[in-house]
Structures are given as structure tokens and as C-alpha cells.
Amino acid sequence: MKIEVETKFNVGDFVYIPELYHHEWFALKRPFEIYKIIINTYGNTVYIYYELLDETLIEYKEDFIFASYEECEKWCREQNSK
Predict the structure, then answer these.
(1) 10 Å Cβ neighbour count for 68?
(2) Angstrom distance (rounded) from CA 35 to CA 62
(3) For every residue of the chain, which 3-state class applies, written as one string?
(4) How far apart are CA 17 and CA 51, in angstroms?
(5) Strand-by-strand arrangement of the 32-42 sheet
(6) If phi over 0 gives left and psi between -120 and 50 gives alpha, with beta otherwise, what is residue 81?
(7) Which residues are within 8 A (CB) of 55 and not within 5 positions of it... i.e. 6 or more apart?
């Protein structure tokens, strides 16, 4: 079996993440460094998670990681307006 996976980010990249607080999304102002990339498969579906260097080392899906603060802030505004 051969699986080729292309990730949106690389280890060592600095990214921004949103945080949900009292039912509202906020873009965190400080960037986080990607520490590890985790790739899981379930059947024919590939799941990509990123572990960020912070106090908790939580895994985040690609959908919740942004290359810039502005992208993250825009996503938060869109989610909050739904």
C-alpha cells in the first residue's frame, strides 16, 4: 500500500488558531509553532492533525489552523455571523 499525503503546513511553521469562548470565536494573536504532524487513516479517508508547541500540545485539524492572523480573524467573523 502506498499513501501520498500533502500537508498544508510543515513542522516548524508558525500558525494561528481560533478559540471558542462563550459561544464566540476569537483569533488568538500569538502564533504557535507546529511541533508534529499526525496522519491517521480510517478506511479510505486520511485525517491530518497538527500538534502545536504550547502548554497543552493539543492536536488541531487543518481546518482550524491558519497561516496568518488575518485569515484566522476572517474565519472567526464568518463563524460568528452564522
Answers:
(1) 13
(2) 14
(3) CCCCCCCCCCCCCEEECEEEECCEEEECCCCEEEEEEEEEEECCEEEEEEEEECCCCCEEEHHHCECCHHHHHHHHHHHHCC
(4) 12
(5) 14-15, 32-42, 45-53, 59-61
(6) alpha
(7) none
Q: Give the pairing of strands 32-42 and 18-21.
A: unpaired
The 10s digit of each residue's pLDDT in 8-66 is 999 999 999 999 999 999 999 999 999 999 998 888 888 899 999 876 668 888 889 99
Grid coordinates representing 67? Answer: 497561516
Q: Which residue type sits at 80?
A: N
Q: Which of 5, 71, 61 minimizes the C-alpha distance to 34?
A: 61
Give me the count of residues in the chain: 82
Residues whose CB falls within 8 Å of the CB of residue 51, separated by 6 or more in sequence, listed in order: 34, 35, 36, 37, 38, 57, 58, 59, 60
